[in-house]
Amino acid sequence: MGPNHPEVAQSLDRLAGLLVLKSKQVNVDLLYQRALAIRKKVYGPESPAVVASLNNLGVAYAEEDKFPEAEQTFSDVLTILAKQPKPNALTLAMVYTNMSNLYRREGKQKKARKMAQKAKTIRDLEESPT
Q: 107: domain CATH number?
């Protein structure tokens, strides 16, 4: 298995996620960046796997108080999702929730509420019978 194998990306994502959960003071964003690079190369720059890696990277940046990087990363995710004919609604809601959490940490309550409302609206639409 080479260094650009999809399973390596998955392992890096899992390790970084575990380190975030354990509140380890390491730059987990570096692990997510490596996983992201692998997934872009293997699956293409706008695949669902890349969206997942970017979202994880945004969360890591937020946890490391790298707020501008986190906001840009979440914006990148939204840009990719906007290009898709029918983006995954739950993924979209998750990104808005993560952005809401980021803005709360930054003390930007108005923006946080706006993102939380977007996430709620999407979830409500997904749960309503058609």
A: 1.25.40.10
